[in-house]
Task: inverse folding
């Protein structure tokens, strides 16, 4: 980064020059020598040896006051320049320490800066490839807190789609709580940024968050980004209402309640936390009902040849609602899983119908859906 300009020392005062005396007598000459430490203080401070310049300047001031030597201005200038250099160095050090206060889906492990730009310099809309390769389970601390920012039109690992501050808490709330908050809020932000992210096939959401050490040092920012579980993105996932025709927008909007609920899926299965899984199943039941209603309303604005497939999806969604409600009331894990199996029995049929409708309204067809329909991708 560019550093602020150093305070420039005023040029040392020159001893007065005297012409020939107006009357006979000796010429005036300096009565005492200039302090060598004062000269050295200014010189070494200007060549970036600030600690040494500071020491020499202090010694010069002491000697000047005791011995009557000259050069106080030089000593003061050397101390001033050294002080500025040391302050700038300290500020740079504090900035560098910020790289070590973040973690990636892990409570431990500092983020160390390396070559490239810091991930914390990335902004919403930036496409990038992180310096740390993701592990197979998408867990682990960042070994390298840098990233290469790339054009979204060339292959890139991920795209920043939002960020937020964790506020309202003094002490570190714990890794699990921070991760839960980060996951929930990042999920909501994705749908505002990428209204049709399903067009890119399967996507994985990720986030960088402050660990305990980072929290103690003031870290509160969470960065949300998305990428494919394997491989790179080839284009930006960013889309808003202005990028769609009315029929397209109405169709993809109908799926939003369902996508929002899916993004809230608990991280633990019903065998470990049945209560949380049951609450989520209730959310899914309500989401399927709302998606069916919205799609039924949007169906009239779709081209005639895809209204039939849209109606079939409405029927499938409505049929799934009671099974999700059963899962929400399940007394044990077996009953929960049995209900979910029934609720999702027509998922593959829905994928094929969705691909047909998307092609009919001019929306991109996800790679996995095209493959299911036997099309080349």
Result:
């Amino acid at each position: 980064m560019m550093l602020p300009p150093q305070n420039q020392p005023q040029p040392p005062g020159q001893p007065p020059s005297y012409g020939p005396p107006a009357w006979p007598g000796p010429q005036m000459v300096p009565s005492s020598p200039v302090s060598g430490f004062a000269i050295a203080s200014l010189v070494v401070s200007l060549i970036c040896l600030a600690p040494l310049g500071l020491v020499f300047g202090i010694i010069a001031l002491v000697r000047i006051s005791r011995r009557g030597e000259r050069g106080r201005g030089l000593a003061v200038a050397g101390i001033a320049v050294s002080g500025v250099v040391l302050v700038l160095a300290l500020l740079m050090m504090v900035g560098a320490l910020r790289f070590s206060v973040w973690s990636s889906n892990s409570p431990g492990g500092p983020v160390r800066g390396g070559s490239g730009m810091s991930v914390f310099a990335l902004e919403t809309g930036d496409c990038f490839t992180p310096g740390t390769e993701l592990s197979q389970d998408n867990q682990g601390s960042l070994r390298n807190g840098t990233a290469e920012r790339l054009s979204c039109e060339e292959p890139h690992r991920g795209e920043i789609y939002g960020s937020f501050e964790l506020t309202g808490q003094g002490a570190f709330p714990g890794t699990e709580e921070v991760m839960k908050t980060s996951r929930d809020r990042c999920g909501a932000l994705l749908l505002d940024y990428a209204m049709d992210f399903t067009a890119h096939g399967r996507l994985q959401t990720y986030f960088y968050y402050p660990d305990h050490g980072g929290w103690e040092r003031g870290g509160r920012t969470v960065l949300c980004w998305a990428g494919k579980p394997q491989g790179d993105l080839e284009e930006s996932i960013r889309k808003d209402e202005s990028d769609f025709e009315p029929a397209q927008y109405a169709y993809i909007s109908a799926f939003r309640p369902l996508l929002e609920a899916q993004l809230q899926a608990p991280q633990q299965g019903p065998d470990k936390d049945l209560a949380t899984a049951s609450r989520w199943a209730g959310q899914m039941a309500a989401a399927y009902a709302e998606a069916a209603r919205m799609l039924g309303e949007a169906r009239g604005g779709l081209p005639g040849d895809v209204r039939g497939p849209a109606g079939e999806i409405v029927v499938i969604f409505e049929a799934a609602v009671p099974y999700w409600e059963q899962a929400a009331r399940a007394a044990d894990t077996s009953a929960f899983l049995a209900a979910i199996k029934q609720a999702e029995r027509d998922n593959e049929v829905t994928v094929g119908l969705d691909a047909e409708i998307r092609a009919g309204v001019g929306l991109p067809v996800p790679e996995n859906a095209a493959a299911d329909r036997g099309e080349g991708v």
User: Anything to note?
Assistant: The chain has twelve helices and seven strands.
